[in-house]
Queue: 2 jobs
Job 1
Amino acid sequence: MSTRTELIDTLAGLALFADLSRPQVEAVAHTFEEEYFADGQRVLRQGFSGSNLYIIVTGQAAVHVDGTQRAVLSRGDFFGEISVLLGEPPAGDVVAMGPLRCLALPGPDLEVFLLTYPRVSYRMLQAEARRVRSANLWR
Amino acid sequence: MAVKRRQPQSRRRRGAAQPFPPGRYPVVIVGSGPGGLQTSYFLRRLGVAHAVLSADAAPGGMFRRYPLFQRLISWSKPYAPAKRGTRSYEWYDWNSLLADESARRALVPERMDGTSYFPSRAEMEQGLVAFAGDARVRVRYRCRWEATRRTDDGFALVTSDGEYACRAVVLAVGMAEPWKPDVPGLELVPHYVQTQAPRAYAGQRVVILGKRNSGFEVADALLPWARQIILLSPRPALLSIHSRSTAGVRARYLLPYEDHALGGGVFALDAATDRVERTASGYRVVATGTTRPGGFAFDAEAVIAATGFTTPLLDLRTLGLATFNQDRLPALTPFWESTTVPGIFFAGTVTQGAVGLKKHGIPSNSGGVGGFRHNARVLAMYLAEKHFAVVVPRSVVRPDEVVPYLLSEVARAPELWNQRSYLARVVRFDQREGPRDEGITPLAHFVDASGPDAVAIVLETDQTGDHHPAVYVRRDGRVTEPVLPSDPLHNFETAEHRAQLTALLDGLL
């Protein structure tokens, strides 16, 4: 994304930010920082403290738990929030599968961010509910 | 005809006096700011031949022109808990370049006049000029890098003086190009670098687009002159005292923010600029609130775009160089090499393109001299060992000295304090040779690359603001991350710290 307009258009197209006004999306674009990860680079590290929230903008990432791949994440998916919300190290690695662009929010800023944008909190809750449902289907 | 004859003669005379004529060199460094000077110094110490090219006429880089209002935001404390000229003192002096010889250290505070512990731009520039002179860092000045080509064994740099072939390029070109986002009408207003002397804004209403350091720097300078100052940007101002990093607005620019907080007439608003229009008396800025809904329209005599800078990457994108941050920074490995074009390295402020672990959201300090001068030493050693087969001996650490050594490092090492969560002190454990000091290494490399049993110690700042040592222990290829306690006086050499670290290294010593 080389322009501000492209970045805002991309964010506005993500489910997490679908309920925000355009100026709010612009504020979000300035609140998060864009990060780039090369193929095979670790974004989140299992067992390490102090992680952050990431949202995938382009590309894919694999979730590895104890070295075993458990899931593949793609555009619009987010990760790291459980670790930040619970104050616990992530339970798995997240590794770039090819070039990966993410938006990153510092872990300590997540609470204020979610309280500032309750519609984002609601969307995040829906995504978590889907994950719980999927997890239960496997039991 | 006479003019035509004089120009080539002048170029020949200059070329004859200048070092590094066009040709083949193992490494070419571009830039004569602090990043270029520091990298050249350490490469030479390691015996790696290289050329240094600069479009400027003298050393100093951006400090030959900026900060605009002539005072830095990073400290150099003339009197500090550590003795001037020692390694520990470097933590208290973020602006002097590093040197192995004590006489070449701490050159900036030597030139400070005592009116502030932030050096003036001129004092900083003089310190850099002195370093280049004392350390005999040779540079081919007035030689502009213009284009880049891949070759069979590296790269060819096309410059205003001719072509340079090399195996590796180190670009220390700064984030020096003014940058504006694609807001309609923003092309009508001057960028931060075009700001006039404060007196020129006497009695004017001034809208400053941007609430980062450059925006607040301008606002601070205009406080005694402007009739009203309005700072606009989509997100709330991030202050360094809250973010606990130099990425936030520094305390010395907080007067406009205090004025805003006390209702004194300055406004720092969270609003996205929709467009800027020209009016008979100046400009109209139309914006929409972000954290609070609502529209704004400000008529102002002056508008200044304090919207930041970008890296002059020229044609590197056509070689496949990946960028991020709205195309402003190259994506880099932990050793500051392009992730997509191996052999192209960066030094100086652009090394912030390597993000690192960013523990608790704290970024590296690679954007500032205080941080990137340490990167330059690590980069030089990496280049020397990886590309030029230089063998740098590692010193032996007695097993009973490992714990006190690591704790003293995390308590005082300037590399660890300047580059929290980014640079680590590493000790490797070899069953035959015993513990070896591996030196300073990017933490991301230590935790993500395989290697022998080893320990890395870094300084980290958690979400409560506490500074504490974090220990990364690698056993059988697996890295764990225990965190040691913080201490209100940053004393990490207590009996408790020693006991905990000794237990963590059980079986390795």
Job 2
Amino acid sequence: MKQFLSFVKKEFYHVFRDKKTLLMLFGLPIVQITLFGFAMTNEVKNAKIVICDYAKDQASQEITRKFEANKNFKLQRSILSYHQIEREFQKENVKLAIVFPANFNEDLMHLKKVQIQIIADGSDPNTANTLQNYANSIIMDYQMELMNIQKLPYSINTEIRMLYNPELKGATTFVPGIMALVLMLICVLMTAVSIVREKEMGTMEILLVSPFNPFLVIVSKAIPYFLLSLVNLAVILIMAVTLLGMPIHGSLLLLVAESALLIICALSVGLLISNITKSQQAAMLISMMGMMLPILLFTGFMFPLENMPKALQLFSNIVPSKWYYIIVKSIMLKGLGFAAVWKETLILVGMTVFLLFLSLKKFKTRLE
Amino acid sequence: MRSLLFLLRKEFKQIFRNKALLPLIFVAPIMQLLILPLAADFEVKNINISVVDHDHSSYSQQLISKLTASGYFKLTDYGSSYKEGLIQIEQDKADLLLEIPGNFERNLIKEERAQIFLAVNAINGVKAGLGSSYLNRIIKDYNSEIQMKWINQHGESGNSLIDITSSNWFNPYLIYNKFMVPGILVALVTMVCSYMCALNIVKEKEMGTIEQINVTPIKKYQFILGKLIPFWIIGIFVFSVGLFIVGRLIYGIIPVGNILLLYAYLSIYLVAILGLGLLISTFAETQQQAMSIAFFFIMIFMLMSGLFTSIESMPQWAYVIAKCIPVTYFIEVVRMIVLKGSSFADIQEHFIIMIGFAILLNALAIFNYRKTS
């Protein structure tokens, strides 16, 4: 036990001596929470639009003013000809163009039927879709005003209640995702690299010839990162609650326990990577290139998992952070207890045991 | 010049000798490009909806069949109480819960207005927002349908109608892949080049082999060029494979604009991003440090560059940060040239800014690189 403690102490020296890495370790979650909490949004705001008005009469001006007043749109300028629209799109400035035909007002009043054309820049499908919806509803509003019949019979009122996240804050989706992402990546990366580094430097050999159990050598390497990750978790949670006003409805203890489970799972992934690679570069590339984007995508907090092809949905099952994400959402936001997440917890435990077993099998006490 | 050639030969030998690294440089990005765009799909389909219908009238049935016929929604549960529906949401089996009160039809006809109740699982912001807006639209459509019927029956015709026709240019069917593939390709090329470049130099530092180079008469700029050129070539290669083989053959994305223009921009961009790698390497003493610094920046780049969310929607301060990231410009340029066929005149500003980045980052790196410690 005393031996083990002194090994852990050695590892802590290694970690704390490297101030730059340490700064990154703690800076990363803070920066991410700030970015996700305040900067990233799925809403579409300030979209630049142009209006191509062949009519320039009362009705077209009124609709134009409505667009001007809407905060989702930023009216660039009015252009005169249809052919200029494509040029405007190509300059990336403009997301939507609205075309009024000539004699717009007259047709509207006398023929009772008139066309407006909305052209969206489809290269960004999501924005295009959203903006078309906004534009549609602005024009429909105008039409309703025109018809001057608010008191139509048979009207259905929809009362919408947003459960768990009444203000539709982006942070609510992102924070559990960031917790999964940061804990997972940092643990995998740091353990893998710190072990492979000893291999590369040749100091591993010295450790292995010591009378100490070789596997405990490795375990002692993981402990500092385990503790650091818990500190990171605390930082994320404190920031989420104080800065972003996120609730923790469920039991904090359970949340921390589940997080500890994910950390252990990630550490075992790191162990496994360190066992199968020989150079730091390879270990890093596997854990960064190979894991960053997949974790970002398959955790399910950026893109809904249900939309993916079946094969990828199946694949997402082996990403531990996916299960953790479900657990965190249930505990933090829905306030559910252990009874609701035991299945996910069991899966995470299973993964961890399997990974540890695998790395134990692969672990070689001899260097060739 | 001759010593530069020797340096280059050394670098290429080192890169191609490392059998563990090669697949990671060449195969991993391509594999990711194959898979990730399939996963990164914002188009929301299959929204699970649970309906609680207390009314069981013809109007409520009509409304429900409208919902299921729209193609966006999947009726997962047809429960009898709100509580039951809420459990569905808690277990993530339903995203939306629609409750139609008991006297829906009677209220609609006698009192001329009726309430329905919609609960949304708002944890998943995208799905909640889109799902409830789709649902609202369908309810509104249904509503105006029955209202129109009423108007026609009561002879109050003659209302003006505005007919809205909408179209999407450059991507008429709104295929999300077309938007994602170029963006992800940029992200992958950026990651490969900046990591590899930073790690490569720091490895020489850590191993001590940089001392051997430092004592030779090789000049600063020769050493840096020797490190830059191999990764520049790798970057071009990975980008080409991604664009022509994966993008074109698998996703059927044929660049609309001028390919030469795209490559001109790519070559400047690579110089800038390799400069960043160099700069990181001058700050780091160990590979672990270099990696954590690179990771820190790449993470911010990925999230802020407009790869996933549009930068115009960000608050002002975040927009300014996004504009200080080279990746932002390249993602924009690739999408502009590949999807919209923008010409040089449209992106000259982007060119000037990227040249600025390239000069600034490399100048800082060379300034910071010391042959003696």
